[in-house]
Amino acid sequence: MLRENEAPGKDVEAALAEPVDLPADRKREILAREEALDGDHYAVLGLRPGATVEQIRAAYFEASRVFHPDRYYGKNLGSYQARLERIFKRLADAHATLTDEEKRAEYLRAHPRLRVAAAAATAAAAPPRTPSAAEDAERQAERRARLARHPYLARGAQARKLVDEARTQLQSGAPERALGLLHKANKLDPRQTASGIRQAAESKKNAERAASELDRARQAASMGDTAAAAAAFRSVLVLDPTAHAAAREGAEVLLRAGELAPARQLAQKAVELQPKHVPSLMLLAHISQLLGMTKVARRLAETVLEQDPDHAEAKALLKKVRWT
Amino acid sequence: MAEHEPVIGIDLGTTNSVVAIVQDGQPQVIKNRTGQLLTPSVVAVTSGGKRLVGQLAKRQAITNPENTVYASKRLIGRKFSSVQIQKAREVLPYRLVCGEHDDVRVQLGDRAVSLPEISAAVLQELRKDAETQLGRPVNKAVVTVPAYFNDGQRQATKDAGRIAGLDVLRIINEPTAAALAYGFARTVNGKIAVFDLGGGTLDVSILEVSKGVFEVVATGGDTYLGGEDFDNRVIEWLVMQFAKEHGVDLRKDRMALQRLKDSAERAKMELSTVQETAINLPFLYTPSGGTSALHLQATLSRGKLEELTHDLAERTVQIAEEVMREAKVRPPDLKEVILVGGMTRMPIVQELVRRHFRKEPSKGVHPEEVVALGAAIQADALLRPDSQVLLLDVTPQSLGVAIAGGYTRRLIPRNTTVPTAVTETFHTSRDGQTTVKIMVLQGESDVAHQNELLGEFILSGLRLAPRGEVEIDVTFDINSEGIVSVAARDRETGLQQSITVTASGGLTDTELKNILEEQGDFLLEARTSSEVTLKRSALENVAREVEALMPQVRQLTGSSEFGREALRKAEGVLTAGRAAMKSEDLILLADTIDQLEKTRTLFIGVLERLGARTK
Questions:
Q1: Distance from CA of B421 to the nearest CA of A (A)
Q2: N or C: which end of chain A has fewer CB within 10 A?
Q3: Residues paired with residue B213 on neighbouring β-strands, in sequence order
Q4: What is the CATH number of the domain that holds B250?
Q5: Count of domains in chain B?
Q6: Model-level pTM?
Q7: How far is CA B508 from each of CA B100, B118, B168, B518, rounded to the nearest angstrom?
Q8: What pLDDT, in 10s, does the model give residues B567-592?
Q9: ipTM value of the model?
Q10: Spatial CA neighbour of B215 closest among A57, A82, A268
């Protein structure tokens, strides 16, 4: 790390005589470039002030070919190893500074003499032009485009795009995908809640799931698996609290299996959902009667007969419970 | 040095590794001993204590999941306490344990094996393959790592090379290597982007190429985003399906998980060419209690796969966008976009890249071989004096020092061309401060403790003065070998302190030495035994030939004095040969083969001269 302080051997003769794996003219080239390191960034690259970015780049690449330490990998370089590293570091620094607009401006501000020279050189090369109206418009358009690419705004735009996509997904009947997209959009841009679409998608999704659960429940019921069927019927009701059919069918299944208390719960639910639905009323009446709740059963049978005065089953039930 | 010693280029991948070399100016991939170009980066120890590497290890992974290490590249050079390792512990079928220095070890049998040793096993395998193909010893290599690897991960990879008996000339970045390989055969001038999505990592690099000089402009990526993450999504989906159907959580069954992993990967790869694929895993799970085994049957479509992994694919291009922004490069500035890594075969990835870079990605390179070829090209460029190729590489991460208040002051920003040196002046932060501590940090965070500490030292003996009065020059230097040194100098007194940063790859020097010694014995043995086998079979072949020639020779020359003499000698040589067959002495074997070959030449010559040979 003392390299910086190891002054380059001023004695060129001694350096040339050093027994290293380098031809004499390469040694001279290295020593000459080392001398130039005292100069400005342009001089280091062997250029005049005001050189274009392309020229700077070309000079840097050309010089790298000669002075990058990797070109002499594995060779005995003696003091030249440090010389090469020193030269290349300066080359890279000069290149990085002069090819970056901001850094170059700053560098030229710090070196007024160079700035004058550079300005003179560029002025000679290309007379300054006033931007035309067309160019102005072009620049404005570019600025707007850049603004749209700004992370914050870009996120908003992206989120909006996702919401649009969610809407189409929902319309084409894929509510789960729509919800996924909405979730993503919300993560990108928390303002983007799109609650209307979300609700629609959620209820649609629940309805779809409820339908598939109902299928499953019916299947289980037909195979005599009461427990599974009852669970599935109940989850239908969780997904879709208005699913009257699930309540009624669930109650029937449970009744058949002799599980009266849970059966009554579901039957009750069915009646609540459709207070005038005769089969549901009858079902609840039967269950209630079996549970010994005769008053309830009687009232239910009477409700049925109000709707359908000729309902034979209701009449029979009423007869059964009237005198108890 | 007309013909320099062979130097290989190695792409040490997360899932597969490749070795290549430049021969007669042409870079080419070296096939492994099973004839494959890709060697799985898998290391296993069998119940008998035998070590298996590559295809052999991968093939037995299903039946031996706990002792089969894959994707170890994701763990190398990381701290055991890091989030990534803790996350990895939950999903990996093999066991990770904590080493002495918070480094990660893998419990294989009764040994806790360090990760450099695991990688070394793969490197050693590749080295042997190269030696077999070249017929010469190979001791030097250029190894690639993801661009985003930090110093610790690079150092650990270097350690792995040392354990495998390889002098690692350079560690270069994978996308850079890809660009080298791409630009090698073509005259490209201008900016190119490399999009490298491999098994475990994503790397994006922008390079400027001009007549053989490759300048890395910017590089970035994510060390935890790759094909395995896509596989995991498929695995999760399969596990969920299975749980729904049978109520069984397959993740608890390591063997089932391994089978799921294999078929998820296969399904993903198949879906790059077909629209739908079936996943059939019979007898995947046997419930306890004697009920019959459960099978997994599923159909995965490309659409479903894309749905499962869409956010991952999106993230890859977002990272690419960041790198472009940093490089101040816009899509129209790019001459070429090169796709590297097996994952870029996935249509959705290609589509997103196409849309993002607004350019048809180049198909001119083989995504899985290109990195190893580039490593070989760099190896060749370093050692060949007349090479046209020069790589101007950059620092992968920023370097700086911790300053008062717990912040970072960056001295060398990332993507700075190396070698480089920067000096900056600092002041004391307290009144009467006579010592300063220089903490060398690597990373992009402004908060000091979120970066990685590469080393620290103290500069003392400063003048007693109010704060801010004493000035200290801090110099960071990275030489062309990539070695970082830091010096602090008191401007007034000229007092100076410095360190050379040697990031540890988790192994201490003594540990490394011990491993090297153990390994040294093992290596020597392994090589001898394989060479002995070779020589023995050569000996057997030539002995059989001589024996076959014997009756003819006897018939033709048995009557002459010369003939009897020659026959007696030949019989002596054959007897010696049979004795040598049992020996393990390579020199004796070689000598005997030599003598037998001479005898054979003599016999053939005699027979030809006498016109008895009808051929």
A1: 7
A2: C
A3: B210, B390
A4: 3.90.640.10
A5: 4
A6: 0.66
A7: 9, 16, 18, 15
A8: 888 888 888 888 887 776 777 888 88
A9: 0.73
A10: A57
